[in-house]
Amino acid sequence: MPKSKRNVKVSLTKTKKRPRDKKDALIEEIRGCCEKFSRLYLLSVENERNTFLQVVRQKFRPGRLVCAKNKVMQVALGTTPAQECQDGVHQIAERIAGQCALLFTDQAPADVQSFLAEHRPIDFARAGCKATDTVVLPRGQDALAKLPHSIESHLRHLGMPTQLLEGKIHLLGDYTVCKAGQELTSDSAQILKLLELKQAQFSMSVEARWHKGGEFKDCQDLED
To answer: What spans are recorded as compositionally biased (Basic residues) (predicted)?
Structure first.
């Protein structure tokens, strides 16, 4: 008779941590940062990329940059005066919306704003992003000259009117990859990447700031 799986002993050291445990740990970490650091900045994020966020983290160490679900960050900070973990910090929680992050640090507003204004690297745009420029490829072989001939069939799969002639990729007619202001499709995003054309600029902007003791500012002007 086969052994019942219900009788198998599982060492607790091998059990996976439950998502709820991780969420509770993050909430406690955020509350701990409110206690540890004197300033909290609510940052809006455009074209988020992990590699670019890592640069921000390194810049503001030993500060802490938190990118988590908005609801988790709101619960951690508290959305009402009765729930807030520090005086006045619920005003930050009320403004958490869209793609955003929390920056805990002791650095002054002018220093934070100065760095974020300069740290705006460019990357390849993804599907769903709005094109910043109109890209039209002319008929012929010049526009695709840098691409290997082996990729020609893939280009046709992406919707481009191409043909392989004498080992070179020919575009059979003018082809519009994207138009400025319109959302990129998956195909157009792939084509831009193949052509090494970057149209996504990473940026972070301060939307609001809080200082320990209850001071709050809905920010446009970051001067102390």
So the answer is: 1-20
